[in-house]
Every structure is written in structure tokens, then in C-alpha cells.
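Session log. Operator J.P. requested a structure for one protein chain; no other inputs attached. Running the standard single-chain path with C-alpha cell output.
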Amino acid sequence: MGELKSRLSLWRQKLGVVPDEVWLRTDLQTLVLADNDLTEISERVGDLSKLQMLDLGHNRLGELPVGLGRLEGLRDFLYLHDNRLAELPDSLRGLQRLRYLNISENAFEVFPEVVTTMQSLIELRATDNRLTELPPSISLLTSLRELHLRNNQLATLPDSIRAMRELRQIDLRGNPVTSLPEGLITLPRLEKLDLRWVTTLEPPRWFLDLEANGCIIYL
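Structure written below.
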């Protein structure tokens, strides 16, 4: 019973606004507020100190509360996809235990630098935005295994990506990629490089070496 009480799903309830009583549920470990036409989240979300998973996807959020960064126990998932976000609050550097972050289907033109401080991330999804480049600091995500960047405006990746030695998958489908750093060859665990729907890249000769290392390249 205790486990059930620590979970609250209000998925697709047409809420418009989160009821105040939700912010009193300081026992919650999982909170689902997806698909509710929400335009804002109260700063009181930071009071839910036991949260391990938070789903705010499929809403109409244009910004996030600073208090979200107080959720230092958030470790499993943070879903922010399909909103109207163009930036993230710097306070999110407090999410040092977070392993999965989804910021896909938003309005990001500049990659939110604060994400590079979330050093426990294993999977990052930032598909279907307007990103034109990744910052060199992306290399700080040394635990990252999956990097999903489908349908952005990326022409290349930073050379610093060679430091991300846990990377298994890189998804660049649908980007106007013209070149890639040869340092990808040095990534010991890279298994999949997805370049489908990329029409702007002339595959470099070193792709043969990458494939020889066991990486499957989808063109």
C-alpha cells in the first residue's frame, strides 16, 4: 500500500491548473501531470523532496519554476517533452542524481547549458527542437550512454565529444550534418550512429574504422 500511496498519476485529466493539494503530498516519489494543458507549475513543486520521477510532458509550459532544482532526490526520469520551453532555469544544476532527461519537442534554439551539469545522466533526449550546435561542455556528461538529437539544425558535433567514453548511441537523423569529428573513432563503447534522413554529409573514410570498431552506422 505504501508504494501505491507514493505514486500519483493525473495523466490527461484536463486540469488546466495543478490542484493545491498535490503540493501537500510530500510523500510522493512519482508524479505524473502529463497532458493537462498546464501553462505553469508552482514553485511549491520543490517541496516534494522525495520525488524520484516527474512527468510534465505534453503540456503548454513556457517556463519552469526555479524550485524544480530543489528536487535533489529526482533520479529516475524528468519528462519535459512537448511543451513550449526555450530555456531551463539554472537551478536545475541541483539535479545531480537524474539519469534520464527528455526535453524533446520544445522551442530550444540554444542548447541549455545547465543540462551539462547533470553528471549522472545516462540518457538525454533533445529531439525535434531548433538546435544549431552543442556546447563543448556537453563532454562533461561522462556517464551518458544515449544522445538523441533527431530533427534539429545541427551541422556537426563538438570535438570534445571524444571525452564521452560511455556513449553507446548517437541519433542525428534529420539534421543538416556536413561533418563529424574524427574523435568518434576513440569512443570505445559506441554501437550506433544514426544518420538516416541526412542528405548533406559525404561519409568520411574514417567511417570504415568506426565500423571496424563495432559501431553500426545508419545512412
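Operator note: Strands lie at 7-9, 30-32, 53-55, 77-79, 100-102, 123-125, 146-148, 169-171, 192-194, 216-218.
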